[in-house]
Specification:
- This is Transposase IS701-like DDE domain-containing protein.
- The chain is built from 4 helices and no strands.
- By secondary structure, the chain is mainly α.
- The N and C termini lie far apart (39 Å).
Length: 87
């Protein structure tokens, strides 16, 4: 049986569009909850440097002279959303 991390990784790798913890929960009919993914991500250790050291050898094997690998962890502002002011 796959772990939550395995499922989440497969979901990220096989998706062509935006990925979310809620999206994974929806795909698994709630078997993997949004909170389970969020908790998993909060427990993972490491930083950008550690991640790069881990994936750099693989990236160097498959890189192309005219290709780019871009990562973006920014959160886009949604002007149509209101701030949740509930305490």
């Amino acid at each position: 049986m796959q772990t939550t991390l395995d499922l989440y990784t497969d979901y990220l790798l096989s998706s062509f569009g935006q990925t979310t913890a809620t999206g994974l929960s929806r795909l698994t009919d709630g078997a993997v909850g949004h909170d389970a993914v969020t908790d998993l991500l909060n427990r993972l250790q490491g930083d950008n440097r550690t991640l790069w050291q881990h994936v750099k050898p693989l990236i160097r094997q498959i890189q192309e002279p005219d290709g780019l690998l871009l990562t973006d962890d920014s959160i886009a502002h949604k002007p149509h959303s209101d701030e949740n002011l509930a305490s």
